[in-house]
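Is this the right way to post structure tokens for a design question? Let me know if I should format differently. Anyway, here goes:
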């Protein structure tokens, strides 16, 4: 999975996906809720060269309500797209 510059200095898409998923912890603040999901999606578009993981994970993020939103959707999307076979 390709990363955009300067994010390719840490050439591990799982690292960046985990950082994006950690932003969900801020979603517990009532004011931020859905705004965090949008911020995650925009940040993912900036970090990842391909839009597919962003579309998969953002769809999951926006569909899941509150506490279920902690599912590591960006890590899961990277895992699925990096699987061989």
């Amino acid at each position: 999975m390709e990363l955009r510059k300067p994010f390719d200095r840490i050439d591990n898409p799982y690292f960046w996906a985990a950082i994006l998923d950690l932003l969900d912890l801020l979603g517990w603040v009532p004011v931020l809720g859905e705004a965090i999901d949008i911020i995650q999606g925009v940040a993912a578009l900036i970090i990842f060269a391909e839009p597919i993981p962003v579309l998969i994970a953002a769809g999951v993020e926006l569909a899941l309500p509150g506490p279920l939103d902690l599912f590591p959707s960006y890590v899961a999307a990277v895992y699925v797209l990096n699987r061989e076979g």
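Format looks fine. Someone answered above. Worth noting: The radius of gyration is 12 Å. The chain has one domain: 11-82.
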